[in-house]
Design brief:
heterodimer; A: about 1050 residues; alpha/beta; Rossmann fold; Dimethylsulfoxide Reductase, domain 2; 5 domains; 7-stranded mixed sheet; 35 helices; about 20% strand; B: mainly alpha; about 45% helix; about 0% strand
Chain lengths: ~1050, ~190
């Protein structure tokens, strides 16, 4: 009571007379003071009585509303209604519902322009394979080419022209307005420059259109760039041999390959062709032709993983290494050269603590295999290395391995750096009326010291032609959406001997235009834009300029139709490769002996290329072939360097070169050279869409127009621990090298079985000797009478690239899950490539193994399924019935191979807020495969839909089903043909040779689950004393 | 002890009620089974097309219109243009043909009501059945006698298996027919 009084006394205290709200307050009116203690005045509820309200409460009202809606819905709908069937009004001749149609075209994912075969169902592309008739890629296509289909259906593709308004935002405008306004600006250019900035153009007709454009407008300059290119290598070749470009190599004929920082199986050159040719020297049926691969490189690359001998060496020391090698060879009497006398291989080996055995073998092998070996230098290396390597190949007589049948023909050369600098200075001087980004992204790619973005603000008008938003479109005045690869006409010429053709396989999904057609319509020579404009121009160009030179006996229309059908046109062209080595080029080989402390190496991303595939979830989620990291790039460093920097995996380091610095997480890589950092480019896109924006780190700023030796090798960088961590996610952790219990566990458990070629020659049955005798089983064997499906994986041919993963994803509607889910081990890939290290952390040897459902005859998963959703088919498949699965995950728990994948979410909805549920992306789905939802287990079933299709074909043709009738998606995509598939019961078949090969074994054979996937042990072609 | 009202209910009325509920449920379950499976579903179509006239009296082959039935999973409902092969000259004065021509001229899709349907996770294949010599009528009923097409048989997994397990009994006209596959992935993938 006294407390209350105290409070009320306090309240009655005089208010501060400085602040008053009314006179009543100022004069301390008692009524006011009393009222101020209550929230409402007295009588605020007068005249309000709840009883007078309607009896229908809000809750009741809503319940009634819901009930009546439900009743109305139930009453109106015919519960037997099964929807509608809407046939074509006029059916296109080639369409049969339920049967795919294939079209040949050309991939424009990078400037290699491989031939592709596009599988369409009911008019929509659903799968990309290589064009078997194409001379370069011969039926195979890389992961990017396969994932390109996702870019076609990307819901974020631009759909209308955009114009920047005064506030800096983009307004949608019509093509008519865009055309009119841009043409006005172009016509007003006068003597000011119009700059076209493009990536390399491989299309002859496309180039001709640029020429037309140049002749229409007075001052047009074309600037060409590619983030990664062969310019250094080609200029070294021109210095060594007078003219031309670096020739193609007969990898298949090489007995010994020495690759210096050259990832020719990964990102250097046409990897599809390289891998195919290289793997021909890994044929277990022709072991006398086995090649031997030496790799000397900084960080472990895909090529390094496949080496018989690999040595780590920082890339800036490659030059001295080659010179030492030349000196060593001249000491052994191979050449009389004196230019290299100051180099000593022994000293060099001591300084870099290189393994003497490696060098010994290498020198001996190079000498013994003169004319049958090739030394290959990676395109990122400085010019002097390439000249030295050209010389090395010359003195060893290895020039016979340069291909004479075909050579690279670039339709246009890349612009030199000085030329690009001219553009920047003209921009700065305000002499540029218009900049056209012709399907390129210079704001992201061009060297940072050019300050392109800043210079661009002084251009009269900036126009970007692009498929989807990017960094360059964001700073443009006009953004014009263009056709995707699969909606375009076109042609391409990248090699001598043939042309490739592009044809559209789907009509434009949104209001886009063909980029060549846009330029053509601006020139006004062929009238205004319509869909046939460029097509007509292309036909005309071919009829007038190319067809007459082909001496074809067909009429042009016949010729064109058959060319479109094949996707290629073969032409008879002479290949001239200069073979006269210019010895004066050796004067370029000046001694370089100073090494900076840290060297930074920038490499093309295996998954994203130069960043073009950043918004492609399939590629982002594809594990890096070596590190298995997804959704990020990182600084690869050696363990020794990590100790010096006092960092662990995921710790951030600061890499600094001049004014540029970057904080990037560390990922310690076995086999990485000390004091070097390797970062992949293509990541850290700012404007790539919801999938690709802000994924990884943008290290492009380290590329300078002014560089000392190579734009991709930056010497003298400083590296410090930055503090803080960043979460890198990889699908496979590597085990500790120094703990004896887990060291080489994959070999102790016979998961990986390997041998050397020598062992195999001595005892071809050495693998079978290791295998256990036939084990007893409590199950009665099931008689497989008809076809029994099996797979054989030749690990001599498998290079571990992971292209099969993307093929499987596209074929089987496998969803993208995102980084957060990969971190939890929930990636949905049905097929994975396991990578195992053995040996020491500095000189590891790597084994890769494709792991997929083994379709065990006595599958442990089947016994534990409470609802029999997974069981065995009479053709030996471990079937998975999605509509029966209730998601107990017992099967996954019981699977020894861990190849089952569970839908913890409806990932299509879960990833990036339903990104994959958008209607456009539904078109990507294979209609023959169920789209799985949340709570369902899924796994590989050997492309069951293809088996069913082949079976129905066999029934239709009234013949027995054969093993060779079916190919799986992974098999189709494998550029080295490492995956074989067929009928186990057909002992006459080609497949049976691999299934029952003496090198064959099963993984975890001791469990007696009787897998139907055979692995063929890898043979390392090392020297016999190490066997 | 005196019987209460509750006891009376428990002893007499409750069992009777439960019996009635169960009996009527069971009766309805079996009686309505065919209807629930869609048997007898005969919806109105946008064009009163008569299979009886075309396939029955005029003996036009099924595959003249359902062109893909031997080649593909789907039999294919014919395009409007297929009808116009004849009807650009035949019976042009009939109201339904006038309607049909409108569709054709305007390029409008003809939205037929779907009658037969198996769930999306069952991958039925017309071509394997037809190529084995199984007549259309085995599943679709006497189409040639239907003025308006309706579903004649049940299309449940049970009815598929019924035939797959006893093909000789169900299809006596086929002498050399094999047992149909019974394993899951024959239809589900």
């Amino acid at each position: 009571m006294s407390q209350d009084k105290l409070e009320s006394n306090e309240n009655i205290k005089q208010p501060d007379s400085n602040y008053w709200r009314s006179f009543n307050e100022l004069y301390n009116d008692p009524v006011f003071i009393e009222n101020s203690k209550h929230e409402f005045y007295n009588g605020v509820t007068d005249g309000f009585s709840p009883n007078e309200l309607s009896g229908l409460s809000r809750r009741k009202f809503l319940a009634l509303l819901g009930a009546s809606a439900a009743l109305a819905g139930a009453g109106c709908a015919d519960y037997r209604d099964k929807g509608e069937i809407i046939p074509y009004n006029q059916k296109p001749e080639e369409v049969t519902l339920g049967k795919p149609t294939y079209y040949a075209s050309t991939c424009t994912g990078c400037s290699l322009s491989c031939g592709i075969l596009i599988k369409t169902r009911e008019g929509r592309p659903i799968k990309i394979d290589g064009n078997p008739d194409h001379p370069v890629n011969q039926g195979k296509i890389c992961a990017k080419g396969q994932a390109n289909i996702l870019n076609l259906y990307d819901p974020e593709r631009l759909s209308t022209p955009l114009r920047r308004n005064n506030l800096g935002y983009f307004d949608n405008i019509s093509w008519e307005i865009a055309d009119k306004e841009i043409l006005n600006k172009l016509n007003q250019a006068g003597d000011k420059e119009i700059a076209i900035i493009t990536n390399q153009i491989t299309s002859p007709s496309g180039l001709k259109i640029i020429e037309e454009f140049k002749s229409k407008f007075s001052k047009v300059n074309v600037y060409t760039y590619d983030l990664f290119n062969n310019s250094i290598k080609d200029s070294a070749w021109a210095k060594s041999y007078g003219s031309g470009k670096f020739p193609l190599i007969q990898w298949d004929a090489a007995k010994v390959v020495l690759s210096l920082e050259g990832d020719f199986l990964g990102v250097d050159g046409n990897k599809i062709e390289n891998a195919r040719l290289f793997s021909q020297g890994r044929d277990i049926d022709a072991i006398e032709k086995f090649n031997r691969l030496y790799v000397v490189e900084g960080n472990m690359s895909l090529t390094g993983m496949n080496a018989d001998y690999r040595m780590r060496l920082r890339p800036d020391a490659q030059y001295e290494f080659v010179m030492c090698l030349i000196n060593e060879l001249s000491k052994r009497g191979i050449s009389s050269s004196i230019i290299t006398s100051q180099y000593s291989l022994q000293d060099f080996a001591k300084r870099f603590s290189l393994p003497g055995k490696f060098l010994n073998h290498l020198v001996n092998d190079l000498i013994a295999n003169r004319g049958k070996a090739i030394v290959y230098s990676g395109s990122t290396l400085p010019e002097n290395v390439h000249i030295a390597v050209n010389y090395l190949n010359e003195i060893l007589g290895n020039t016979s391995l340069y291909r004479k049948d075909s050579t690279i023909q670039q339709a246009m050369d890349l612009s030199l750096t000085d030329y690009l600098k001219n553009l920047i200075s003209s921009l700065d001087d305000g002499k540029v009326a218009a900049v056209i980004h012709y399907d390129s992204n210079p704001a992201y790619h061009l060297p940072s010291d050019l300050n392109y973005r800043k210079a661009l603000s002084k251009a009269g008008v900036v126009i970007t032609l692009t498929v989807s938003e990017n960094e360059s479109s964001a700073i443009s005045d006009y953004v014009l959406p263009i056709h995707h690869n699969f909606e375009s006409w076109g042609d391409a010429k990248t090699r001598s001997g043939f042309y490739s053709l592009l044809q559209p396989v789907i009509s434009p999904i949104t209001d886009t235009r063909q980029k060549e057609g846009i330029l053509l319509s601006w020139t006004g020579i062929a009238g205004s834009y319509d869909e046939t404009l460029y097509h007509k121009y292309l036909l005309n160009n071919w009829e007038k300029n190319i067809y007459p030179g082909l001496n074809s006996k067909m009429s042009f229309q016949q010729f064109w139709n058959s060319a479109l059908h094949d996707g290629i046109v073969l032409v008879d062209e002479k290949v001239n490769i200069s073979t006269e080595f210019i010895s004066s080029s050796l004067n370029e080989l000046k001694p370089v002996n100073k090494y900076s402390d840290y060297v930074l190496v920038l490499k093309e991303s295996f998954a994203l290329g130069d960043g073009r595939f950043a918004n492609n979830g399939f590629m982002q989620e594809l594990p890096h072939p070596v590190s298995k990291v997804t959704w990020d790039n990182y600084a690869a460093i050696s363990e020794q360097t990590s100790k010096e920097l006092n960092v662990k995996n995921n710790d951030l380091i600061e890499v600094k070169s001049g004014n540029n610095k970057l904080n990037i997480p560390v990922f310690i890589q076995p086999g990485c050279a000390d004091r070097m950092i390797e970062i992949e480019l293509g990541y850290g896109r700012e404007k790539a869409g919801v999938v690709g924006s802000s994924v990884g780190f943008n290290a492009n700023s380290f590329i300078k127009s002014q560089f000392s030796v190579s734009p991709w090798i930056i010497e003298g960088v400083s590296v410090t621990k930055a503090g803080g961590t960043y979460n890198l996610v990889s699908t496979q952790e590597h085990h500790a090298f120094d703990i004896e219990r887990v060291q080489d566990l994959h070999k102790k458990r016979h998961i990986i079985q390997e041998g050397t070629l020598e062992t195999y020659k001595k005892n071809p049955k050495f693998i079978q000797d290791n295998r256990k005798h036939e084990l007893e089983s409590v199950y009665k064997p099931f008689p497989y009478d008809g076809v029994k499906w099996g797979m054989a994986i030749d690990m001599n041919k498998c290079i571990g690239c992971g292209e099969c993963i993307v093929a499987c994803n596209v074929e089987n509607n496998v969803p993208i899950v995102g980084k957060d889910q990969v971190e939890k081990g929930r990636e949905m890939h049905w097929l994975r490539v396991d990578r195992y290290y053995s040996g020491t952390i500095n000189e590891p040897s790597v084994s890769t193994q494709i792991m997929l459902c083994q379709q065990c005859d006595q599958a442990p998963c089947e016994n534990v399924c409470p609802v029999v959703a997974t069981n065995h088919s009479p053709d030996g498949l471990n079937q998975m019935v999605y509509n029966r699965c209730v998601g107990t995950r017992y099967c996954s728990n019981n699977c020894p191979y861990k190849v089952r994948r569970f839908n913890y979410f409806n990932f299509r909805d879960h990833f990036r807020d339903g990104y994959q549920e958008q209607p456009l992306l539904a078109l990507l789905n294979n209609p023959e495969v169920t789209v799985r939802s949340r709570g369902v287990m899924e796994k590989c079933t050997f492309c069951l839909q293809r088996i069913s299709d082949a079976r129905s074909d066999a029934i239709r043709e009234n013949r027995p089903l054969k093993g060779s009738d079916v190919t799986t998606a992974c098999q189709d995509s494998c550029s080295t043909n490492a995956i074989k598939f067929g009928d186990i019961n057909d002992l006459e078949s080609d497949f049976s040779k691999f299934r029952n090969h003496e090198l064959g074994y099963y993984v975890l054979e001791e469990l007696n689950v009787k897998p139907n996937v055979t692995y063929l042990a890898r043979l390392r072609n090392t020297h016999s004393e190490e066997a | 002890m005196k019987n209460s009202l509750l006891d009376y209910i428990l002893r007499a009325r409750l069992p009777v009620t439960i019996f009635i509920i169960i009996a009527s449920f069971t009766l309805t379950y079996f009686a309505s089974r065919a209807e629930r499976d869609g048997v007898g579903y005969t919806p109105d179509q946008p064009i009163n097309y008569s299979h009886k006239l075309h396939a029955g009296e005029m003996k036009i082959d099924c595959q003249y219109c359902h062109v893909a039935v031997e080649k593909s999973r789907h039999a294919m409902v014919p395009a409007v243009a297929t009808c116009m092969n004849c009807h650009s000259v035949a019976r042009k004065d009939k109201p339904d043909i006038i309607k049909l021509k409108e569709y054709y001229d305007e390029g409008k899709p003809l939205r037929w009501k779907r009658i037969h349907r198996v769930p999306d996770y069952a991958y039925f294949n017309h071509s394997v059945h037809v190529n084995k010599g199984i007549d259309c009528t085995a599943c679709h009923g006497e189409i040639t006698k239907m003025e308006k097409v309706g579903q004649m048989n049940s299309f449940t997994m049970g009815s598929c298996l019924n035939c797959h397990r006893n093909p000789h009994e169900k299809l006596p006209e086929l002498k050399n027919v094999n047992l149909g596959p019974e394993y899951c992935s024959a239809c589900h993938r």
